[in-house]
Each structure stands twice: as structure tokens, then as C-alpha cells.
Queue: 2 jobs
Job 1
Amino acid sequence: MTIHPKLKRWVNAMAKMCHPDNIVWIDGSSEEKERLEREAVSTGEVIRLNQEKLPGCLYHRTDANDVARTEHLTYICAKRKADAGPTNNWMHPKEAYKKARDIFSNSMAGRTMYCIPFSMGPIGSPFGKIGVELTDSIYVVLNMRIMTRVGRDVLETLNDSGEFTKCLHSKADLNADRRFILHFPEDNTIWSVGSGYGGNVLLGKKCLALRIASYLGRQEGWMAEHMLIMGIEDPSGHIVYIAAAFPSACGKTNLAMLLPPEGLKKKGYRIWTVGDDIAWMRIDTDGTLWAINPEAGFFGVAPGTNSKSNPNAMATIQKNTIFTNVLLKMDGTVWWEDGDPPIPEDGIDWRGRPWRPGLKGEDGNPIKGAHPNARFTAPVYQCPSISNRVDHHHGVPISAILFGGRRALLSPLVYEAFNWQHGVYIGATMASERTAAQYGKLGEVRRDPMAMLPFCGYNMADYFRHWLYMGTLMKRPPNIFHVNWFRQDTDGGYLWPGYSENLRVLEWVMDRVRGTARAEKTPIGYIPAQEAIDMTGLELPKGAMRKLLDINRAEWLKELDEQSEFFKIFGDALPKEILAEHESLKRRF
Ligand code: OXD
Ligand code: MN
């Protein structure tokens, strides 16, 4: 199917190692989709859901030991350890290839190898990149067909000599002891073996669009970021686009698809979703930052998604969606914890066992119907709020960048950086406190610079330097903000209702960008002046806004000490500008 000699040679070499029974090229057609679905249904790899209620929808269960990204088995295989940096696992490429080759050898015997040519970004976009994934999993093919643009058009764009990322995946025997997610940035190559979980195996997503792309972005002068992209249309029809980075599971998908709250609705705001997870950003000829969403689908967390928390997501996943590790209901539809009511009386849980509400395990803990990291895979085009620029080759101009995390006591609801360099420092010191849902000590602070800790494909100190450098190239860099929807009162209750009410904060952000919103200067940055956030239709308890915007000096001094500890891991490599910002903040307190 391809006229690209290098691509042909690589596919042959990988087939020689993995020994599939046959090789099938993915063309992206609807006939192909039907054929693959039929085959996967016949082997039990997927289950066809109730086609009347959920047309085009499929169900899949992963292995019980294979339900999330495995950061401890994820490696950056640069020749020099220093190029992977102190925050990544590192293996020498020679050793990594050798280790993985042993597992890949004959791993596809009795199976088909699918060759998926895919484009991250609109096909032919100067912002885009092409990859080819070889995989022995139809589930992966069906997901990649949603998450990326696949098929013939991609090969045509590649022609006989285009650059592409070589992505190899095999489920092998799904043995966690023989599982590796290996990145070879210097070879533009990804090898993933022993897993069937999305984040580990849909190689266009975290592996290419973040780890490999961040490396390429540094070399080529652009940025690959773990960010949602959304447009806020004001009553006059003008749209301001923002990009926002929050750590995994902090509500990026919900924010990207937000519906205006009652009080602000009559103002006439509309939200346009461009992406919910990844942004590729370049400086365009006008000297400002432009972003595309390299993906074509959402791979969202199902539990917690419901018609209140995210009505647009619920509307998106009514058809042509793949559900993974959710509860399978007796009528062939699906459900998950904190989903829409009613709670079903019975079903089959994510492990394939009979389930009913209140069921307890041997340890006395409730058994969940859906795994907490259960997912939906759905085309972006089905989202009612999808932006009409999602397929635009140059994407959208970015006016503001938001960083955020869960901080019970430290960060105010919102503050704005004084300038780009100060904003980079705010991103570099981003952190989130663990919730009960996460592994580790409750309340423990996890540093997650720019939400990229698990996704940066090179030394993070150099990544900060790249951010600083990009700022020097822009004529008008975006304003940078930090938000915290999760501030708590002394009794532990949340002070801010979140969800659609977050638009009130975004309105202030938007007005700051235009220079019309009032702000107060504080040691950490600008915060909204009194009554600068429109609270029409939202009654908070007395004094709550003051608490939301309060800056607690003692907490910040503690934070500054913790930041110093964090910076130590980078040694001398840490850019002096970051240290200078840290010192200035200390001085301002
Ligand atoms: C994701 C993640 O799946 O960040 O998007 O883990
Ligand atoms: Mn993510």
C-alpha cells in the first residue's frame, strides 16, 4: 500500500522480529471498520453494545493487571542519561532495544499485524506529524481510528520519503513483568510491549503527541503540551482561545466542554471545545502563539462523568464510542460510578463478574462496577460544543495559558503572572495534592510542572529553558494564570462550586487579556479586585470570596521551602531565571 521504501523496510524488519501470520494495512474506510469489528466481536475482544440505544458502540475489558498507564515501566531511551533528566526513567537505547526485542520476538505468531498510518493534527497541516503504528490488537486499531486521522490520505501525504514516527506495539502475553513503554527520541521511535491499556498502547497520544513531540518541539522550535484548548465566545461573537494544563484527573475534559451557568447564560457566552488533553503550539507569522489539537477523539475518564458534571461529554458518547472497563448492564448499555442515575440493579463488572449495588469484597470494601480509570473513546466531531476550527491547519490563536492543580490551602482561586518569565516559574512549580482516589499519602504534594512530569521526553530543566526561550520569540505572548478550583475551608469543605461556575473565573481571565478587568497586585501576582468576578446568580456563603482569594504568608513561606527542595533534583541544570523568580517571590513576602 505504500511507495515509501524506508517505511516498507521498517515494516518488514518488525514483521521479521514479531512473526505475525499476516500483515494488514489500515485504509480508514468504513468497510474496514465493519470487518474489524465483526472479527473482534467473534473472538470476544470486544462486545457489541445495544445498537438501538447506543448505535455503533463497543465494549472492551482490559486485563485486570493492565488498567492504567504504568509510569514505572515507561522509559526515555536517550544515549546520555542526562538527556532524559532526573524526572524520567532512563535506559540506554542498546539495552532497551535488546530487552524489548526478546519480548517482541515471535510475539505476533498466530496473530495479524495491523499497520496504521496516522496523522496527529489535520492531514497536511504544517503543525502536524505523521506516525505509523504496528500492532497486533484490533482494539488498538479501532481506538486509533477514533483518536487520530488514519488511512490512505496519510500515506499519500507521506509519499515516498516523508518523515514518520515508528511506533511498534504488541500485547505479547500481557505479563506485567514483561511490559515496557520505551521511547527513543533520537530515533523517532516508540516500542510498547506487554500492555493493552490505552495510555500505553494508543501510541499517537501520550507517547508521540507528548513525549516524542516535546523532544521534536524543542529541536524545531515549538511546544507540545498536556493542555486542553477552548474558545470562549463573548456576546459580541468574538472568541478568545485559551490553553490549560492541569495534572491528570483534575477536570480538563469537563472544563473544555463547559456549559455557561444560569447566571451568565443571559450574557450570551458560548464555549467551543478544541481539545481536552493535548496542545501543539507554534509561533505563527504574526508573532503570536497558535495551537492545534493533534487528536481527533476524546479518551476520557468515565466515572464522575454525568449529565450534571459534563452534559456535552454525555451527548458525545451516545454513539460510535468504545467503552473500556465500565459496568455492562443487562440491556447491553453501560454505567459507571457517579454516572447518570439510576444505579442499575445488576450488571457485569469491569472484571466480567456479576455485580449488584452494595456488593462487598473479601476485605469488606465495596466492589465497583466500573474501574475508577474506566474510559470512553469518542470522536471529537460528536461533541455539541466542538469548535469549527478543530480541523483548521493553523488551529487557533492562544491569548491565555492556565496552570492549575489541587491545593487545599495554598493557591487562591485565580491569579495572574506578572509576565511570561514569572508565568513559566508558576508552571514549573505547579503541584497537586493527592486525593483519596490516588495511590500514596493523602494530602501529599506531588510536583507536576506544566502537568508534564510523566510526559516530558527530555530533561525537564531543558524543557523549562525551552519555555523561557519561546517567550523571547513572541511578539505578544499569552497572559499566564494559575487557577485552583479546589480550595478548602477550615472544615474541609470546598469553597468554590467548580464545574460550569468556573466560567466566572474565565470571564475575568478573558477581560484581563483585553485589559478591561480590575486586579489587585499581590506578592504572587495579580488577583481579581473586589467584585471583579461577576457573581450574578451564584450565592456563596458570606466571606467565601475573601477566603478564596486570600494569600496566606505562612503557607507560601512553607511552599517556597518545598520548591527549593524540588529544584535540587535538577542541580545546576535549572535555568537561572527560574531561581531568580523564586528569590524575587521570597523577597516580595
Ligand atoms: C490521560 C492522562 O489519560 O493524563 O489523559 O493520564
Ligand atoms: Mn492527559
Note: Residues 225-295+388-588 form a domain with the Phosphoenolpyruvate Carboxykinase; domain 3 fold (CATH 3.90.228.20).
Job 2
Amino acid sequence: MTSSPAPLPRFSRITGTGSMLPARRLTNADLAAELAQRGVETSDEWIVERTGIRARHFVDATQCASDLAVVAAQNALAAAGRMASEIDLIILATSTPDMVFPSTACIVQRRLGIAGCPAFDVQAVCSGFVYALTVADSMIRTGAASKALVIGAEVFSRLLDFNDRGTCVLFGDGAGAVVLEGSATPGILATDLHADGRYVDILCVPGTVSGGQILGDPLLKMDGQAVFKLAVGVLESAARATLKKAGRHAGDIDWLIPHQANIRIMHGTARKLKLPLDKLIVTVDEHGNTSAASIPLALDVAVQAGRIRPGDTVMLEGVGGGFTWGAVLLDL
Ligand code: UT7
């Protein structure tokens, strides 16, 4: 008689979080002083009032996204009480990979010493982590993987035009990671992903590599006001759609972690969901906008601080270039 296969885990659950910030921290005043040397005028007052950002971290010339990702992943593994050898899937969200190819996920895999399991990058800019977490959740629920590392890692400082004060004050570098495992209990309750390619041009790095040269402009371009307006609308709709799929209500959310880009967008989203601002996790003040790393970084900071605790219900929300957006509702 043949024994029946083990039942699939119905859910996935985060069992550990980790993060990594590069050592070099620049306050707004530090950055303003550097920009002044180029004749670019800005001020701490403007940046704080319009964005909520007070500081950001930048890599040095030798560091890549994988350097940050490996440390974040190791911290997440330690928090989950797992060895790297137990991981059977790596998904890494980035728009600033180490190389054109292979993927930064494969570089991280090599550095963790775990050859064999699938490893790939997800490119959805600032929505990258919610995209990556959604894919990992699906793969775990279908039995394709049982213990995944899901990472967001960025070195956006490499893409910034330091002559454009409208963008260069906004972004920072960093990485965040989670271990996601199969579980009989949720875990991830619902996910909701979207993209609208009609808005490719409002936030982009239009350059590419061809014939040994960079073709086009390799620096970040953004229509800030267009992004702002779209972001406020889609963050509310994604949160509501995700709650509906999970059969939950906004009042069930213990913590809201929207993409950390601008405190005004974050406050607007909390207000639309009628959530008190003390349920909002804010790290944009200290990290700036770290694109795909912003959500796992904020999650880890809040977990390390003992604010988000096991059993809490958390709404993660991404929005960014593409245009892409999405949300993940989970019980920690
Ligand atoms: O990660 C993807 C998500 N990205 C976002 O969510 C970004 C969304 N957009 C935003 O956060 C905001 O649109 C910005 C923070 C980028 C800009 O804020 P704003 O209130 O929309 O400012 P603005 O672009 O309308 O500029 C207002 C003024 C302009 O001067 P004038 O034309 O009124 O004289 C700008 O030149 O502020 C000036 N300005 C600055 N002044 C000092 C723009 N950047 C700066 C600066 N320092 N860094």
C-alpha cells in the first residue's frame, strides 16, 4: 500500500525579519551642504516639510545591493532560528541589481552557500517587496517551496541626479528581508497586486546598456506630483481590496506599513482608512525612500523595537514605478 503524500501547507507565515543599512548616514543638512558645492540649493526645512525625511544612508563606492541583502538575509535567518541550508527559495526585489545579469538573488545565494534552490529577482521598483512576498506566498501554498528568503535591497544612490533637487533628496540605500515558511495557520491572509504601464514615464531610469555603452539617461526621472496623486488613490484601493479578500475590516489592522516615500502620502493613506496615526510605522524620516527595501526595513525596525509583536495584524503596501502597486495583509 502506498502512503498518501503529506498535505500541503495551506498558508505561509513570516518567521523572522532582518535588515541592513549602510554606515554612511547623511542628515538633510549634510546633504544640503554637499549639494551647495554643486550650486544646488535645498534646505532641511523644505525636505522635512514636503517629505518628512530627515536623514538617509548611502553605500560607499565598494558596496552593492547584494552586500546589503546578504546581511539582511542573515539577520532574518537568525531571527527565524533557521540555517541558510534550510532555505529552498530566494526572491529578491531590486531595481539596482549588482549586474545586468545574473540576478542579485543568485549572487546572494552563492554568498549564503546554498546552491540548488530557485533564486530570482523581481523588478517592480518600490512595489517590489509586496510583489516578491506575493510570489513567495503562492509558491509555498502550492508546495513549490517550504522556506523562502524574501528580500528587498537597493542602492538607489547610484541612480540619483545630484543636480536635480526634486529627486536627489528623496532616496536612500538599504535592505530588508524576511523568512517566509509554510504553516498550517495564516500568516499571509490576502494579497492584491496591480500595474498600469500607461504611466511608465512618470517614474523611470530610461537608460540602458547596449554595445558596451550606456544608451539614454541612466539617472532617475520623476514627475513628483503625478506620482503623488496616483499613490494616494491606489494605496487606499489596494488596502480595501486586500481587506475584502481576507474578510477583514480596516479596524482589524494593528499596524500599517505603507511604502516609505513621503510622510504626507502615508498620513493621507492612514486617514482614508480611518486609522489613527499611531498605527502607522514610519521610518521614512531616518531612511528616506529605499524603494523595494523600504517595507521590509520598516517591518524589521518595528519588530526589533518590540512595537509589532507576534499575532499582530499588519498591512504592507507598495507603490512605485511601472506604475505598480499592491498590498499584503498578514498576521505576524
Ligand atoms: O517611490 C515612488 C514613490 N514616490 C513618491 O511617492 C514621490 C511622490 N511625490 C512627492 O513626494 C512630492 O511630489 C515631492 C516631494 C517630490 C515634491 O513635493 P511637491 O510639494 O510636489 O513640490 P513641487 O515639485 O511642486 O515643488 C515645489 C517647489 C518648486 O519651486 P517653485 O517652482 O514653486 O519655485 C521646486 O523647485 O519646491 C521646489 N523644490 C525644492 N526646493 C528646495 C523642489 N525640490 C526642492 C528641494 N529643496 N529639494
Note: The chain has two domains: 11-183, 188-331.
